[in-house]
Design a protein that fits this description.
Blueprint (H helix, E strand, L loop, with lengths): L6 E5 L2 H12 L14 H13 L3 E8 L2 E9 L16 E8 L9 H14 L6 E4 L6 H9 L3 E7 L4 E8 H11 L1
Parallel strand pairs: 4-5
Antiparallel strand pairs: 1-2, 2-3, 3-4, 5-7, 6-7
Helix pairs in contact: 1-2
Length: 180
C-alpha cells in the first residue's frame, strides 16, 4: 500500500489539459515520449485523436487532487501493437508518464505505476497488461519489473525498437506482496 497519498484518475480533456500536457511531454525527462518538438496545438490534436478513438483512452492522474501523471490504455488488437504479437483475450496496453517536478518524492514514480496497474486491473475483464517501452529506457524497465512485468522480446515498431513485456494480474499481485 502506498504511503505517498491518494491517486485518482479522470478522463483527459484534450482542450483544457493540452497546455499542462505540453509542459510534461516536451520536458527533457520525457524524451522517450517522442514529443519533444511538439507545439501545444500538436499535443491538443494528438489527445483529441486519442479521445475520438474507440480503442485508445487517455486519463489525467491526480495526486491529492493535483495533476501528477498521464495514463493511456489501449486495446492492442487495434492500437500500437497490431501485427507485432498475438493478443490474448483480456490484454490491455498501457503507457504512463509522471509529471516533471523540481521536488522529487522518493518512491513517487513507483507509487504511480502501482496506481496505474490497480486502475487497469480494477476492470475484471483485464487479464494481462502489455507494454512496449523503448529498449533504451532502462528506468522504466526497472519500474515495470518492480510491479511484475516480464519482458518477452524486442520488437520493431515504426517509431522505435521496443521491449514487449507482459504482466498478469497474478504477477502484479505477487510483486505487490513482495514489496509490502
Amino acid at each position: 500500500m502506498s504511503t505517498i497519498g491518494p491517486f485518482t484518475v479522470r478522463p483527459l480533456d484534450p482542450e483544457k489539459d493540452a497546455e499542462l500536457l505540453h509542459r510534461w511531454v516536451t520536458h527533457p525527462k520525457a524524451a522517450f515520449w517522442m514529443m519533444q518538438d511538439a507545439t501545444p496545438r500538436d499535443v491538443e490534436r494528438e489527445y483529441a485523436r486519442i479521445a475520438a478513438h474507440e480503442h485508445h483512452h487517455a486519463y489525467l492522474g491526480l495526486h491529492d487532487g493535483e495533476p501528477a501523471f498521464l495514463m493511456e490504455k489501449y486495446d492492442p488488437r487495434y492500437v500500437e501493437l497490431v501485427g507485432l504479437y498475438e493478443p490474448l483475450p483480456g490484454d490491455v496496453g498501457m503507457h504512463f508518464l509522471v509529471a516533471p517536478t523540481d521536488r522529487p518524492v522518493h518512491g513517487f514514480t513507483r507509487a504511480v505505476i502501482t496506481a496505474v496497474m490497480e486502475e487497469l486491473f480494477a476492470d475484471p475483464a483485464t487479464r494481462r497488461v502489455v507494454v512496449e517501452p523503448d529498449v533504451g529506457n532502462k528506468a522504466v524497465h526497472a519500474l515495470n519489473g518492480a510491479v511484475g512485468f516480464v519482458p518477452e522480446r524486442e520488437i520493431d515498431k515504426p517509431e522505435k525498437r521496443a521491449l514487449l513485456s507482459f504482466c498478469t494480474r497474478e504477477q502484479f499481485e505477487a510483486a505487490r506482496g513482495a514489496s509490502a
